[in-house]
Design goal:
23 strands, alpha+beta, three-stranded antiparallel β-sheet, 7 domains, flat
Length: 442
């Protein structure tokens, strides 16, 4: 039977008892395996050869499938499962990559070719945008939206930009720059307003320059503010119509209008010069508090924050009788008088049943908090180690405590100790607990 498959039987003759005997065989490829004689008789043979032949047949099938799509399967043999194995492929343009059969059936094309196709579309789109601006895209390759490409504008300026910038409307910097502005432009601008430009040097439109209005007032403004924002003498502006933006709407107001807004709250508008719609005006309430805020906020009803806080605090204030009741439940006494309670609310002064006095916020008493000294003493008693504990610590080191037990209160108490060498020293109990000892002994 073995000769039929080009192999041989390795088991000794005495091992062959019947057809159900498990025998050792060798195939023509040199694979050694064990199988029942009856299974060989039924046509079964080397499993390794069987799966290799099966994988080879499947590979041939995949090669035919790939060739129809212009792809070459480079892998000639596979030892693992074909489902999980990454096979080598090559497209008609020479791109090589590795991928499973499952992924190839989904993608069906070379991933590099697909990426190149997408990049070509993006490059074509960028070239069209450049053409609409009268320029051109010089670059011939496209990697991604963030890689810089070379462009040339209609004025023959060469520059670099990424695709994202071009798609969002960005173009040649040199062409987009405004023509150079000279000092003569601002001198003419000042004359048109009846004034003059005092500065003789012009750096750029954002630097402050000195001006003089027709009334003789001198002031400093940037050239951009005068040319683009139409700003001029702040002294002459005082008392004239100005524009602010309450709730996003343009409304004209004067300095007098600002004072009327303050009068509604029995206060004052202290500002005298208008500096812009986003300028913080200075205000004063009837209690004398001074602060800064935009006119739009005052028009919407906003006023002194300090006064508002006090009003809210008074509204939340407990009656004095309720405060006394809360304190008496704890066995304490309210030391704050009626006048100091209303003046210093929410701070109050209390004395506990033991006689400790302290100041606290009324809300802490409402939430159950009480005397901090009593609280500390209670915690200390719970965590306090007995005096005998420290006596044992000292004795274990060969020393002796010279202090009396009545001198010990808690871990922060200082006790006098004599070490085994006769050195007398003082030590805090907590340090003794940490292992500290006689400094002279080291």
């Amino acid at each position: 039977m073995a000769e039929k498959y080009g192999g041989k039987l390795l088991s000794a003759p005495e091992e062959v008892i019947n057809g159900n005997s498990l025998l050792k065989w060798e195939c023509k490829s040199g694979h050694v395996f064990e199988i029942l004689g009856v299974r060989v008789k039924a046509g079964k043979w080397c499993k390794i050869c069987y799966y290799e032949n099966k994988r080879s047949n499947v590979l041939i099938k995949y090669k035919k499938w790939a060739s129809k799509r212009g792809i070459t399967l480079l892998t000639s043999s596979v030892t693992d499962s074909l489902v999980k194995a990454k096979l080598a492929w090559k497209c008609q343009y020479g791109h090589e990559w590795q991928s499973t059969v499952h992924n190839m059936k989904i993608k069906k094309v070379c991933s590099q070719c697909r990426e190149d196709e997408v990049n070509k579309k993006h490059l074509l789109e960028v070239k069209k945008i450049a053409n609409t601006k009268g320029g051109e895209c010089v670059s011939t390759t496209y990697l991604n939206n963030h890689t810089h490409l070379e462009f040339r504008c209609k004025n023959n300026h060469t520059f670099f930009a990424n695709a994202n910038n071009i798609k969002s409307g960005w173009w040649c910097k040199k062409c987009s720059r405004a023509p150079n502005v000279t000092i003569e432009v601002f001198q003419e601008l000042a004359k048109s307003k009846g004034g003059e430009l005092i500065s003789t040097q012009f750096i750029n439109r954002d630097k402050l320059m000195e001006w003089k209005c027709k009334e003789g007032h001198t002031f400093q403004l940037a050239g951009r503010s005068v040319k683009r924002n139409n700003k001029w003498c702040p002294v002459c502006t005082d008392g004239k119509k100005i524009k602010i933006r309450p709730s996003g709407h343009k409304v004209s107001y004067t300095i007098a209008d600002m004072q009327l807004l303050a009068d509604k709250h029995n206060g004052f508008c202290l500002s005298k010069v208008y500096k812009g719609s986003f300028y913080n005006w200075q205000w004063q309430c009837e209690s004398g508090h001074i602060w800064e805020a935009r006119a739009a906020k005052i028009k919407m009803g906003s006023w002194c924050k300090i006064c508002r806080y006090k009003e809210n605090a008074i509204a939340r204030r407990l009656p004095l009788s309720d405060v006394k009741y809360l304190i008496s439940e704890q066995g304490g006494k309210l030391l704050s008088t009626e006048s100091t309670y209303f003046l210093n609310f929410p701070q109050i002064k209390i004395r506990c049943a033991i006689g400790h006095e302290w100041e606290t916020n009324i809300k802490y008493i409402k939430y159950g908090s009480w005397c901090p000294v009593c609280h500390y003493e209670t915690i200390s008693k719970k965590t306090r180690l007995p005096f005998s504990h420290y006596q044992k610590l000292v004795k274990d080191k060969g020393g002796k405590i010279l202090s009396e037990e009545v001198e010990y209160e808690n871990s922060r108490s200082t006790i006098t100790i004599k070490c085994k060498k006769g050195h007398v020293f003082n030590k805090i109990c907590s340090l003794l607990q940490e292992g500290k000892w006689c400094l002279e002994c080291g």
